[in-house]
Design brief:
Elements: H1 4-14, H2 23-31, E1 36-39, H3 48-56, E2 60-64, H4 68-80, E3 85-88, H5 94-106, E4 111-114, H6 116-119, H7 122-128, E5 133-138, E6 171-175, H8 180-189, E7 197-199, E8 207-213, H9 217-227, E9 231-235, H10 239-251, E10 256-259, H11 265-276, E11 282-285, E12 298-303, H12 310-317, E13 327-333, H13 335-348, H14 352-365, E14 377-380, H15 382-388, H16 393-405, E15 409-411, E16 415-417, E17 419-423, H17 427-436, H18 438-450, E18 459-461, H19 463-470, H20 474-486, E19 490-493, E20 496-503, H21 517-539, H22 545-552, H23 564-570, H24 576-590, H25 597-603, H26 608-620, E21 624-626, E22 632-634
Parallel strand pairs: 1-6, 1-7, 2-4, 2-5, 3-4, 5-6, 8-13, 9-11, 9-12, 10-11, 12-13
Antiparallel strand pairs: 14-20, 15-20, 16-20, 17-18, 17-19, 21-22
Helix pairs in contact: 1-3, 2-3, 5-7, 13-21, 14-16, 17-18, 19-20, 24-26, 25-26
């Protein structure tokens, strides 16, 4: 198949002359109509693997993603490139969704982004069959697996699309982190017609993975960053700590700023632009910082707090060194961090009765009657909820996450929806209205000069911008919009910032709320296993860090030679080959006898001083032990 037309699209819209590793193979695979699973590490350019072939094909590419912020970001970027794209998510009204679907069917659009919980609604299913689809792209595909770290039941409904779209439309599933078990789950749950997996190695040879056991993390950071150059990210767990750490660095003459989801969109954008451009050297952030980051020269990613799974750590640390130059991924770790990890299991899994209490409180808070609520979307103020019912925040959040996992509702993080306007009269009737209502003529002209597309659908508007352009107060602008809406000239949806709860099932009686002990224990067991793997990574000082990460994702590799563990080995002045050879011979001898160090060195056919160095390393790392007579044995 000719790749030239895809390269031409890449160059025309994105300015690149060649594809990154694996992009070309995935594009040719879906272009041939094959269901494809693409495993690409963070920063590998996943979005281009569906955007490029969709541009070259007839029809609309349906993109399913749970990340509303990322959805908005990608739609905005595509539109800025002159590529027509739309989005549907739970922050939109039914009228907006209906108009958006009609535009996708008739409006020559190339991309329709949809959040997964919308897929199973009657409104979407009633119209999706009329979409001329070229491709279905499923981003964050690991969310379909109950074995995964971010399972979402709504993903299980995606395969249902196959029953009302053409069987010639290929599915492309994409993820940056999937264990072998999760890979099998993705293929099965999306009903792939063949096993077609394309992957790049997760091995980031330019990243040096380090674990630093330090009690005073602040002092370590300041000392290290004062003598280290380059731009970086410091990840912390709480919003409060983002500010504290940034202020600590700033007080010590280090350029730093903080970032978290609680900030306004404008402030987050300005902070990200300042960091991306190099004006700010270091950004201290929660895991809300990461989507859409386009900065190749990040020299280090430091984790102040240990994540609760390898997947999150690998994705976040993988934002370092995308330019291929040397970079560092540093995990700061103390004994208290290990205790906190263990305690997170208790907090993550409130008792079943407590989960049911919170479900009932939520339904009462949102005024959802028994037997009602299916497919309803509610604004949700978490702070008001926990305050009203005097609930612990962390326990409540985790109970909601568990109820989401069980499929009772979807629970989104806080999203910021701008105000939207749609003219519901045609141009001729609008002109007549302007002639008859001179007081509104100037404002309507201002709207039409400032924004395009308002006759065909809802368009985001900014009341502050209109205020500055017109010289009128913001409240005056708001009153104009409300009045025109009441006169059925426009539909005006005021902006709001809110989390959302989307009921995927009707409200059930408490006794019908099924959270089986087996399911509860099974989910808890999986979580504990992930936590233990993360703790093992932090505690281990005998196995190559890169090898541990790659092994988790089912990939074999040689030791990296540049992590903190490998560097200690390198200090022995032995090559990997020599070290492993001597190690294997020591294991063989100690399996049948217990010599002392000198006897062992004499037995082996290697230079004695090299054998002694390996023996000392094994003793230091508790791989072998000495008894009171200095006899050696393998530490099982």
């Amino acid at each position: 198949m000719n790749i030239d037309k895809y390269r031409q699209a890449l160059t025309r819209y994105w300015g690149f002359t060649s594809f990154r590793p694996l992009q070309e193979e995935i594009i040719l695979s879906v272009a041939a109509g094959r269901d494809t699973l693409g495993l690409m590490p963070t920063g590998g350019g996943k979005s281009l693997t569906f955007q490029v072939p969709a541009l070259v094909s007839d029809g609309v590419c349906l993109v399913i993603t749970p990340l509303i912020a990322l959805m908005k970001d990608q739609v905005g970027k595509l539109n800025s490139l002159g590529i027509k794209a739309l989005a549907i998510h739970s922050g939109m009204s039914g009228e907006e969704i209906d108009i958006t679907l009609e535009n996708a069917i008739y409006g020559d659009y190339k991309f329709l982004y949809v959040s997964p919980e919308r897929i199973a609604t009657r409104l979407f299913q009633g119209k999706a069959g009329r979409l001329n689809l070229s491709l279905v792209a499923v981003d964050e595909a690991h969310c379909i697996s109950q074995w995964g770290y971010d399972f979402r039941p709504s993903y299980l409904k995606i395969a249902g699309l196959r029953s009302y779209i053409s069987d010639k439309v290929p599915f492309l599933a994409l993820t940056a982190s999937a264990t072998p078990q999760v890979v099998d789950d993705i293929l099965g749950k999306l009903e792939f017609r063949e096993k077609n997996i394309l992957r790049t190695s997760f091995d980031r040879k330019n990243i040096s993975y380090l674990v630093r056991r330090v009690e005073d993390k602040g002092s370590y950071l300041v000392k290290t960053l004062l003598r280290t150059g380059g731009s970086g990210i410091i990840y912390v767990r709480s919003r409060k700590r983002t500010r504290e750490v940034a202020e600590l660095l700033h007080a010590n003459g280090i350029s730093a700023d903080y970032y978290h989801a609680g900030l306004s969109d404008e402030l987050r954008d300005s902070k990200q632009v300042s960091w991306t451009s190099g004006e700010t050297r270091i950004i201290v952030a929660t895991n809300a910082f990461g989507m859409g980051i386009d900065k190749a020269d990040v020299r280090f990613v430091i984790h102040w707090d240990i994540p609760d799974c390898i997947e999150n750590y690998f994705q976040e640390s993988g934002r370092a060194g995308r330019d291929g130059k040397p970079a560092f991924a540093v995990l700061l770790f103390t004994d208290s961090d290990k205790s906190r990890l263990e305690d997170s299991v208790r907090k993550k899994f409130p008792p079943v009765d407590r989960i049911k209490d919170i479900y009932e409180a939520l339904c009462t808070f949102l005024q959802v009657p028994l037997g009602a609520g299916k497919d309803s979307v509610f604004d949700f103020d978490m702070a008001a909820f926990v305050s009203k019912y005097r609930l612990p925040v962390i326990e409540t959040y985790n109970a909601l996450q568990f109820l989401q996992r069980e499929g009772y509702f979807e629970f989104t993080e806080e999203i910021n929806n701008p105000s939207r306007v749609h003219f519901i009269v045609g141009r001729d009737d609008l002109y007549k209205f302007q002639v008859a209502n001179e007081a509104f003529d100037g404002f309507i002209k201002l709207l039409l000069r400032s924004y395009s597309g308002m006759f065909s659908g809802f368009v985001p508007v900014n009341e502050d911008l209109l205020s500055r352009k017109s010289g009128a107060s913001r409240d005056t602008i708001y009153q104009y919009l409300v009045k025109l809406s009441s006169m059925d000239i426009i539909r005006y949806i005021p902006g709001k910032k809110s989390a959302l709860v989307i009921f995927t099932e009707e409200r059930l009686e408490r006794k019908a709320l099924m959270i089986s002990p087996d399911t509860y224990l099974n989910v808890r067991e999986k979580y504990v296993a992930r936590v233990e793997k993360m703790a093992d990574y932090a505690v281990s000082d005998t196995r190559c860090r890169s090898l541990m990460l790659l092994d988790y994702f089912g990939e074999a590799s040689d030791r990296c030679g540049i992590c903190d563990v490998c560097r200690k080995r390198n200090e022995l002045e032995l090559s990997k080959y020599e070290f492993d050879l001597i190690l294997d011979d020591i294991k063989e001898v100690l399996s049948t006898s217990n010599p002392d160090a000198e006897e062992l060195a004499a037995i082996l056919r290697h230079p004695g001083e090299k054998v002694i160095r390996v023996i000392q390393w094994l003793l230091d790392h508790n791989k072998i032990k000495q008894d009171q007579d200095r006899r050696l044995s393998w530490n099982s």
